[in-house]
Design a protein that fits this description.
Strand order of the largest sheet: 1-2
Number of strands: 2
Distance between the termini: 16 Å
Mean pLDDT: 77
Number of helices: 11
Structural class: mainly alpha
Shape: globular
Helix content: 55-70%
Strand content: under 5%
């Protein structure tokens, strides 16, 4: 009997280990979307501008072009284009807007890059033929979800959800709700990153898996990592917070578990 109680006591700490692993991972991933940046090709500039990730100052946008004929009429000499440092680049540091240069790559916060991925997956024609795709690539999301503004909304929502739900799981506050939220994030990530592109290209393994070599560690690692996070989030939904959880101190000993001994 004492051995059984000892095993139950040990099992009560299992959710804490899951919470630490899942919570730290998602908080780190969410903060990275806001604090870190990504470099995107110049061809993405129109969509990023429509999303609100980059913007051109009003003065520069409204300034008319001066032709050679205009110079001849006014007697002014055309010295070529001049750079205005105040209008060349605008970066909103707090919200992570990107650089609006005329050419070259665009650097934006990762949250905008995620929104761009949602957009391109819903509008594959916007980026041309998907590399390796058989025929015309299918859209992974409905058009109304993948508009420029909605894509930006989903990118920011995912970032906030990872930080908020990850923090809830980490401290053990409404753990089951946090687990449901994180599981939803991972289902979307699996479709956007792994299953959707595999189906989009055609010839997927079992109809939905990427076509990596069977034991290609680097190729399968992202998919297996995402599946592990999904399974861990669902495990927290089933197990609750376990010991050392904020919800147990706030709402009582049974707040995070189905059984008092766990």
């Amino acid at each position: 009997m004492s051995a059984g109680k000892g095993m139950q006591g040990c099992a009560a700490w299992a959710p804490l280990l899951l919470r630490l692993a899942v919570g730290v991972t998602f908080v780190w991933a969410g903060l990275g979307k806001f604090l870190a940046s990504a470099e995107l090709p110049s061809s993405t500039r129109p969509v990023l501008r429509e999303m609100g990730a980059i913007r051109t100052s009003a003065g520069k946008a409204e300034q008319p072009r001066t032709t050679e004929g205009d110079h001849a009429k006014t007697g002014q000499k055309d010295d070529g284009p001049k750079e205005d440092e105040d209008e060349a680049k605008t970066i909103a540091g707090a919200v992570g807007s990107g650089e609006d240069a005329e050419s070259g790559p665009v650097r934006v916060r990762r949250v905008w890059a995620l929104g761009l991925r949602v957009y391109t997956s819903a509008n594959p024609q916007a980026v041309g033929k998907v590399e390796g795709a058989q025929g015309s690539p299918m859209a992974l999301w409905p058009r109304f979800i993948g508009s420029a503004r909605w894509s930006a909304f989903w990118g920011w929502s995912v970032g906030f959800a990872e930080v908020a739900f990850g923090g809830m799981v980490l401290v053990g506050l409404l753990t089951r709700l946090g687990g449901v939220g994180l599981a939803g994030v991972m289902l979307g990530a699996l479709w956007l990153d792994q299953i959707g592109p595999a189906v989009q290209m055609g010839g997927a393994r079992l109809g939905f898996l990427p076509t990596h070599d069977m034991f290609d560690v680097r190729g399968w690692m992202p998919l297996l990592w995402q599946v592990s996070l999904l399974a861990s989030s669902l495990a927290l939904v089933l197990l609750g917070s376990g010991r050392l959880a904020l919800e147990r101190w706030l709402f009582g000993s049974k707040a995070g578990d189905d059984h008092d001994e766990l």
